[in-house]
Amino acid sequence: MDLNMKTESERQGAVQGFNEIAETYDNKPDYPEELIQIIINKVNLTAGSKLLEIGSGTGRATAQFASFEFEIVCVEPGIDLIEKAKAKLKDKDIKFIASRFEEYSAPSEYFDAIISAQAFHWISQPLGYEKCSKTLKKGGYLAPFWYIELFHDRDVDLDRELWAIIKKYDGYVSCMQVANYANRMESVTSKIVSSGLFSKPEIIHTYSDKNYTADDYFNYLSSDCFAKKPDKKKQACYEELTQLSDKYNGIKRRYTCELYLTQKI
C-alpha cells in the first residue's frame, strides 16, 4: 500500500472505491488501546472535549474514542461507510458529516484535537494543514496515525514469501519494507513541519501481534480494493496463502502503529 500523499485523481477515485467495499472494510486490524490512551493522555482530553475525526470510514477508530464522552464530529466522504458507522455507533451521540475534509465548513478554533486513522494521506495539502490549524483551538493537537505491516525481506522467510504473494496479486494492504521505513518517518515529519502551522511531531509507536489463518489474512486483503479483483485471481491468491499458513503454522504478523502527534503553533 502506498502511504504517501495522494494525487487529486487518486483521491476522487478512492471515495467510490472505498464505498464499494464497505461490507468488508472492517476486516482490518484494530488499533492498540494503548495508542488511544496515549492520545487522550498527551492531549489531555476529558469528558466534553471536542474531537474531530478526518476520514472516519466505518467508525473503527471512532468506536475506540466513543466511550469517553467526548463531543465527536466525523468527516467522511463515503456515504456507505458512514451508514455502517452509524449502525455500529447508534447508541453514541456522534455527528457524521458526508464530505471531503477539503470541502467541510470547519468552525474556527473549535476543536481541542483532530485525529485521522489511516486516512490523512488522502487529504490535499497544503489545504489540509491550513484547515486543521484554522479549526483547532490555540495549542490544539493534530494526531494522524497509521498501522503498518513492516516486512524484513532478507532474514525472515515468512516475510519474504508473503511479500511476494502480496505483490504478485496486488494485495492492497498497509505494508512496506522495513528498510524504507526511516525515510517514511522523515517524509511525514518534513511535510508537517514545512506547513509552518504545526510543531515537529512526536512520533510514538505501539505494536500489536496477530497470527492469521489463511482465511483471516485473505479477508484482511479483501478489506481494500483487492475485494474487486477477478474471482480466479482471488482464488489463486487464497491457495497460496493456504500453503503459506500450512508451512509456518499460521501467518504471524506484527503491526507497527505510528502516531505523529503535533501541536498547532
Structure description:
The protein is globular. The protein is built from 9 helices and 8 strands. About 40% of the residues lie in helices and about 25% in strands. The chain has one domain: Vaccinia Virus protein VP39 (Rossmann fold, 3-Layer(aba) Sandwich). α3 (about 60-65) links the parallel β1 (about 50-55) and β2 (about 70-75). The protein has helices at about 10-20, 35-45, 60-65, 80-90, 125-135, 155-170, 180-195, 215-220, 230-250, and strands at about 50-55, 70-75, 95-100, 110-115, 135-150, 175, 200-210, 250-265. Strands 1, 2, 3, 4, 5, 6, 7 and 8 form an 8-stranded mixed beta sheet that branches. By secondary structure, the protein is α/β, with parallel strands linked by helices. α8 (about 215-220) crosses α9 (about 230-250). It starts with 7 loop residues before the first helix and ends with a strand. The mean pLDDT is about 90.
Helix-and-strand structural type: alpha/beta
In DSSP terms (H or I, runs of 4 or more residues), the helix count works out at: 9
Through-space gap between termini: 32 Å
Tell me about the biggest sheet?
8 strands, mixed
Low-confidence stretches: none
The quaternary structure here is single chain
CATH fold group: Rossmann fold
Percent of residues in helices: 25-40%
Strand count = 8
CATH homology-level superfamily? Vaccinia Virus protein VP39
How does the overall form come out from the CA principal axes?
globular
For the record, the count of structural domains works out to 1
Q: What is the CATH domain class?
A: Alpha Beta
Based on the coordinates given, report the CATH architecture.
3-Layer(aba) Sandwich
Helix-strand string: HHEHEHEEHEHEHEHHE
**Alpha-carbon Rg, integer:** 19 Å
Mean pLDDT over the full residue set:
91
What percent strand?
A: 15-25%
